[in-house]
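Fold this: Lipoprotein
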Amino acid sequence: MNKALLALAILLLLTACKEKPFYVANIGNAGSLDGPYSMGSISVADVLGGGGGFGYGAVNGYPGKSADIGRMGVPKHIEGYWAKKYLEGGFQYYYRISADIDSELAEKKIRTLQRYYQTFQSIKGRMQVVVEGARIQVIYTQGCYAYRMDCSQEQGSDPNHWVVRSPSDSTDVVVLFDGKGEMSPTPFPDSPYED
């Protein structure tokens, strides 16, 4: 076999082995780790050209509010606004973010979690956006809860130690994005909080 044919055969083999983009979640959560917030407008774009909205309004606690987000692929960008609420009403601080998510790393983490369990298989992945002050995270979970299902780990399924416990220590998650937004004592222009 000549070199050109060999190179073509290798290229075809590598192309056939590459995993195609896929849908990973159809449920979304929006929550907080340090008290009440308003999540006015937060969206996560995915590699398939779609994404999900996580602007669920008033949230408090993890995992927070839940909604059907249709079919969402591996995330690639996060954008939006949120505000820390006073317990008696009104807002203390305002936040915004526009940041890319490393979609290649996110996909590796998602696939790791999907292969993490010995027997548990989920058809409903959950994408979660969680805030704590200026910090904002995008978290993915399969929703295996040990109190009602077998969440035993498949040996050797997480060599990079990407799978961690959720903020509530109730299930396993992978953190796809952990970043900081800008903070302001007054609403950002063109935000949902501007009068």
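The first helix runs from residue 3 to 17. The first strand starts at residue 23 and ends at 32.
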